[in-house]
Amino acid sequence: MTTLSDFPITARWPATHPDRIQLYAFPTPNGVKVSIALEEMGLPYEAHKVPLGDAFVKSAEFTSLNPNGKIPAIIDPDGPDGSPVGIFESGAILIYLADKTGRFIGSTPAARYEVLQWLMFQMGGIGPMFGQLGFFWKFAGSEIEDPRPRERYVSEARRLLGVVERQLEGREWIAGDYSIADMAIAPWLNALGFYGATDVVGWPELPNCRAYVERFLERPAVKIGMVTPPRD
């Protein structure tokens, strides 16, 4: 029978509570998606801080669970067949947890696909484009003299925000009821402030987006998830 000790990652990040879901993450927009979901769903879990440096995410222990070498990843000791299962990719983890609990993924088949399409919109659009915006606006890419990369990602971020702004017209949450799509999208919108990019992407002219993030950040589970695992 499979046990947590069969997962090499537990040699470096040992489980104090092996009966709980093991979360391996760092409090980035991608990382907090999962901690927020775990808090919202009331699932017992143990959070392990995995810093973003290659010595951690590219280590043999971590890539044994996620061969792509990116946070987050989880091990659920009570997988679908009763045995532990490891899962990587934040979108896949959110779907797994929503299916496990039957929550935050729509109450009908049609509502489920409404949620999933907006989750995929974040995974394929907002996440990659905002991440590149951060790189070229705040981090090492900001030193590049050629303005075209910055202009490209600023423009695309503005376009994606326009999609979200229109979708939120007359509604509180992106797919109707609060869902894993919101847990995926809102942390990335909130990250624009960390990047120092709110003005350049037109954030002051997006009242629906601003109110959306404010509502999201006021949720008790979000307040905990946003700082789990702690940076320090």
TrEMBL record:
It holds the Pfam family GST_C_2. Residues 108-232 form the GST C-terminal domain. One of its GO terms (molecular function) is transferase activity. Gene3D superfamilies: 1.20.1050.10, Glutaredoxin. Keywords: Transferase. The keyword Transferase applies. InterPro entries: Glutathione-S-Trfase_C-like, Glutathione-S-Trfase_C_sf, Glutathione_S-Trfase, Glutathione_S-Trfase_N, Thioredoxin-like_sf. The keyword Zinc-finger does not apply. Residues 18-105 form the GST N-terminal domain. This is Glutathione S-transferase. It comes from Salipiger thiooxidans.
